[in-house]
Design goal:
Helix content: 10-25%
Subunit structure: Homodimer.
CATH architecture: Alpha-Beta Barrel
Order of helices and strands: EEHEHEEEHEHEH
Catalytic activity: 6-carboxy-5,6,7,8-tetrahydropterin + H(+) = 7-carboxy-7-carbaguanine + NH4(+)
Radius of gyration: 16 Å
CATH class: Alpha Beta
Number of domains: 1
Keywords: 4Fe-4S, Iron, Iron-sulfur, Lyase, Magnesium, Metal-binding, Queuosine biosynthesis, S-adenosyl-L-methionine
Family: Belongs to the radical SAM superfamily. 7-carboxy-7-deazaguanine synthase family.
Distance between the termini: 14 Å
Bound molecules: iron/sulfur cluster
InterPro entries: 7-CO-7-deazaguanine_synth-like (IPR024924), Aldolase_TIM (IPR013785), rSAM (IPR007197), rSAM_sf (IPR058240)
Strand content: 15-25%
Length: 193
């Protein structure tokens, strides 16, 4: 769908220069999705792996973040192999709702209620990032925290449009449950993509 060089705004790698590769296609259907234009993959151009990696190499950063859409709707073996061969760390942001493919230095699992993750991806996550839309989402978050690897980082992130309402709830929750940390969409505050 698009690619761009920016700063990673969310989660464990927040603040790092990163080349984002956003793949078209998503069948999850979050009603609060902020990239609904990604959902229909046929609306976006097909590019070769060589072209994608060639563009990424024009920038000095060597962190590649594959996102979507739901990137695991595509087989990502060839793309991640080419990125790693070119010296990139490969990170993915996924709901985990389609089968895992690709070689990953970091898997950020962001489970969605609308199409749950496949059980086999949950213990492989390096980072669990749960979007909090309302107070019931804390229970949802704990369901997945109980299934991840013990070394997995745990993040709660306010849904952007509900931020004023849910951020105070998240702060209180983390103070009582300090295994969780706050993730903010910093890129939206500093006005970068
Ligand atoms: S999984 Fe991501 S891209 Fe797909 S609908 Fe949900 S927020 Fe949007």
């Amino acid at each position: 769908m698009e690619s761009f060089y920016t700063l990673q705004g969310e989660g464990f790698h927040q603040g790092r220069a990163a080349y984002f590769i956003r793949l078209g296609g998503c069948d999850v259907g979050c009603f609060w999705c902020d990239v609904k234009e990604s959902w229909d993959a046929s609306q976006h151009p097909l590019l070769s792996v060589e072209a994608i990696v060639g563009e990424a190499k024009k920038y000095p950063g060597r962190l590649a973040v594959i996102t979507g859409g739901e990137p695991l709707m595509h087989s990502l073996d060839e793309l991640t192999h080419a990125l790693q061969a070119a010296g990139f760390e490969t990170n993915i942001e996924t709901s985990g709702s389609s089968p895992l493919s690709g070689n990953w230095n970091w898997i950020c699992l962001s489970p969605k209620k609308f199409k749950a993750p496949l059980p086999e991806i949950v213990p492989l996550a390096h980072e669990l990032k749960v979007i909090i839309y309302n107070k019931h989402d804390f229970t949802w978050a704990e369901t997945y925290a109980a299934q991840v690897n013990p070394t997995c980082k745990l993040y709660l992130q306010p849904e952007w449009d509900q931020s004023d309402k849910v951020t105070p709830l998240i702060i209180d929750y983390i103070k009582s449950n300090p295994q969780w940390e706050l993730s903010l969409q910093v890129h939206k505050y500093i006005h970068v993509p």
